[in-house]
Amino acid sequence: MKKKHIEIWEKCLEVIKDNIPHQSFKTWFEPIVPVRLENNILTIQVPSQFFYEWLEEHYINLLKKTIKKELGPAGRLEYSIIMEKPTFDNPNPVTINYPTNNSKNIVNKPVTMPLDLNKDKTREIPNPFIIPGLKKLKVESRLVETYSFDNFVEGDCNRLARSAGWAVAENPGKTAFNPMLIYSNVGLGKTHLAHAIGLQVKANFPDKIVLYVQTEQFINQYIESVRNNNQNDFIHFYQMIDVLILDDIQFLAGKEKTQDVFFHIFNHLHQSHKQIILTSDKPPVELKGMEPRLLSRFKWGLAADLQTPDLETRIAILQKKLYTDGIVMPAEVVEYLAYNITTNIREMEGALISILAQASLNKKVITLELAKQMIDKFVKSTAREISIDYIQKVVCDYFDISVEMINSKTRKREIVQARQLAMYFSKKHTKNSLASIGMACGNKDHATVLHACRTVNNLLETDRQFKSHVEEIDKKLKF
Ligand code: ADP
Ligand code: MG
């Protein structure tokens, strides 16, 4: 009878074969050798690190699906990589990885999971974390190189968090910012900043053990350790870290056991002056489903928030990204994106990438027109609305005056009219309150905005010339 792991892998291959081009199958799947099946984990051997990365990048979903299909929801895949050249750092010819990380972004070799610590030392595959002859634990930090301080544009929205993070990196565990909790809505740079701190610690103190882990991973590792009855190894592993970065701790909500175990790890690290960095989508007071004793510890250090960036910062972020990638794009397109996507940097970057992709795919030049179409297609679903900033810009461009003018105290007729139109369009096209429109347009009160809207409506009924101006501006606003 065939060995189980071979049989399972053959079944997987049948499915995979049907789902990818023949050539890809030959190139990427035929060289794979199934090694073993243990505890629902199928280990496959791949010829190189590059091979592994390629599979992770291009076939991870397919692999996941087929493995789950054959082994059930608990089924997992591990790679055993034949290292091209054994080095001093890695004398073992083989290393194990979990596949769920997209390794492309991970510095060095990816993933160090604590769960193997307890495995029998005599097994064919040596423990990948302990280097023979060297007592020190080797932990891959799992930091994304591009999420550096250099690439983290400073603005009013992030100044406090950024400089606190910098201070922590200069002196991990030794400042009052321990733990340092970074919170904000999604897509505003928590993960980026947390990585930046980790990378900077590594630059300042190469010997310090830094570990970035997503809270969901942490939870899964814990569950796994309970299943394998090696919780102590799990705890010990984490207690050895010098700088622990736990991303998105809101996912700990309601996970009492994991909170409990994290509480112990936290205490140990804190007492030994190790640095803890946490991120969350809410301020500590609003975190629900957390044990009070853990919550109170989150408040020991510094909680710093990241706010939505202002227009200048948004433009600077896009420019930085273009510059880093060596791409040139017309300023008006960059401005258009920054004007129109205001609350989520990730979305703004996503739109930028879509435009680039579209342009290069269809060999089109990047124009404002293309950008508008793309935004329509790709960002519409994400609650995009015209912003007051954008309305002001369009109105001012139309009358050839500067935006500063309508925000100034000037009572000059044409300025007043432009200001009133900006208010009118803001009321018409955004969900902002009269008060906030007033604030944004020259710091006026809600009554002024109301008056502006009435004035414009009256003029629309009585003044043909005025009406045609309004219609033209309206056309420019819509896309
Ligand atoms: P969060 O973790 O808050 O959801 P991320 O850290 O994933 O957000 O950030 C989303 C994207 O925005 C990332 O690509 C990140 O590089 C980028 N980003 C966020 N803030 C900045 C900034 N200040 N400068 C440059 N890029 C930023
Ligand atoms: Mg994040």
Structure description:
- By secondary structure, the protein is α/β, with parallel strands linked by helices.
- It folds into four domains: 4-98, 2-Layer Sandwich (GMP Synthetase, Chain A, domain 3); 159-305, P-loop containing nucleotide triphosphate hydrolases (Rossmann fold), CATH 3.40.50.300; 311-382, Helicase, Ruva Protein, domain 3, CATH 1.10.8.60; 388-478, Chromosomal Replication Initiator Protein Dnaa, Chain: A, CATH 1.10.1750.
- Helices cover 51% and strands 10% of the residues.
- The chain has helices at residues 4-19, 22-29, 49-58, 60-71, 159-170, 190-204, 215-227, 231-239, 256-271, 292-298, 311-325, 331-340, 345-361, 368-379, 388-399, 403-407, 413-429, 434-440, 446-462, 464-477; strands at 33-38, 41-46, 76-82, 94-97, 180-183, 210-214, 243-247, 275-280, 302-305.
- The strands form two sheets. Strands 6-7-8-5-9 form a five-stranded parallel beta sheet, with helices on both faces. A four-stranded mixed beta sheet has the order 1-2-3-4.
- It is globular.
- The termini are far apart.
- It binds adenosine-5'-diphosphate and magnesium ion.
- Residues 151-153, 158, 184, 186-192, 317, 320, 345-346, 349 line the site of adenosine-5'-diphosphate.
Largest sheet: 5 strands, parallel
Question: Which class of the largest domain in CATH terms?
Answer: Alpha Beta
- The CATH topology of the largest domain is Rossmann fold
Put simply, the count of helices is 20
* Computed Rg: 28 Å
Mean pLDDT: 84
